[in-house]
Amino acid sequence: MMLGAALAAVALSAPTASADPDNPPDFKLPFPCGQTWVMFTYDNHGPGDGSQEQKRIDMQWTEGETDGADVVASAGGTVSHVEPGGVHIDHGDGWFSQYLHMSDRVAEGTEVQEGDWIGTASNVGTNDPHLHYQQMYDSDGNGYPTEGSQTGGPDELVYPIIQGKEYRLTPGNAVNLKSTNNCDGDPGEPEPEPEPEKTKLEYTGDTSLADGESAELSAVLTEEESGAPVADQKVSFELGAEDSAQTCEATTDAEGSATCTVEEVDQPLTDEATVPVTAAFAGDDAFEPSEASATLDLRYVTGRAYGLSAQIPLPLLPIGIDPTPDTGTVRTAGAETKAPQCAERIEALVLSAGPLCAEVVTKTGPNSSTATSTVAEARIGLTGLPVVEISGLTAESSSTCSTTKGSVGLDLTVGGTPVTIPDTPNYEINLGLGAKLVVNEQTPVEGADQGLTVNAVHLTVAGGTDLVIGSTTSAAHNCA
């Protein structure tokens, strides 16, 4: 709905010394006694700054046709100005009232009493028939301002006081009021406002998040009893908690759905790898507040790389070498690099190797983990078995939520004979005497959405020998 024609310039005398902004006239609803009209407003209701937007009220008759209904003076005074569709009444002591969108109007200069006819409600200057009503107070005594003035003078809007009550309506908050205008003392209390409806809020947004990526948070607001959607209401979202909280808000559509986006998720990885989210509707006069919460999965990756590990139960001097060098298990939702110092050399009777290096690199957008192990050269010389010699070894395992892959590169000689390694995982070489050499050994990571452990060389011998050279593991979790 739009306001009617702009105000014209009218000169009025300054208010008398008795003017008092705290003692307005006894304004009544501007309709005949006993009629019930609904009062409402909406965003950007007419010109003016934000402090004035909701001080204007539109009115429609609940019991009859608004178009053609009689409009009466809300208090006694002088009709100070008449324009197409509009009437302005000076009530004295700096107080004015304005009525717009009327077809017939009283003549300018007419003295009116409370309840006197001043016009007919219509749709002049608007689409739907209604009466626009507002009250003004001339605070500085300049009289009625020129057209376009928004400060000082009687276009200094006040929240309307009607039948002893101040009304501060908000969009979507309509109030029914029965007129006591010229009712000879009939109290005419406002019709009781309906009890606010109970509401239900249900979270419907993303269930899995990733740091560094956007997240869509959404919820559906409905009436609890009927299940009807509640439109045009703000819903606030909070992702995370306390120092890590990220917020956004949205307005429900016709289906009661509100959706907003956190542009870049930044949440800490907990032991449970989850993030709380809360959706909240504050409520208003028509609807009770409601809240919904959910626990979302935070995507993360893991990884590990080491150069060599060995358990060789020699009769007199068993060999035990823990993973060296070893990144340890990396677990993160962010981007980082773990690379311990390379081991220059390992010498252990039947085993020598070096230099050996290990590294795990993780990234976001999307989450990924890449584990790499390199060994320049290694030699295994177990009694009774052919000598195994390795050079230029590189093992890699890489995982994201969509894929995982592993690769191994090396030169291998067994008993002095070069061995051609096929481009397939888990290539086995039987060394005899219960000994087995597996090249490019690949096994899935248990419990991960995507994950792979890659051992470049894995030697096992009956009796307990277990030797791994170049091991890498990567995995992605909470991908669903």
Automatic annotation (TrEMBL):
Residues 1-19 form the signal peptide. InterPro entries: Cell_wall_metabolism_enzyme, Dup_hybrid_motif, Ig-like_fold, Invasin/intimin_cell_adhesion, M23ase_b-sheet_dom. GO terms for molecular function: metalloendopeptidase activity. The keyword Chloroplast does not apply. Keywords: Signal. It holds the Pfam family Peptidase_M23. One of its GO terms (biological process) is carbohydrate metabolic process. The keyword Signal applies. Residues 172-200 are annotated as: Disordered. It comes from the Bacteria. Residues 67-137 form the M23ase beta-sheet core domain. This is M23ase beta-sheet core domain-containing protein. It comes from Streptomyces caeruleatus.
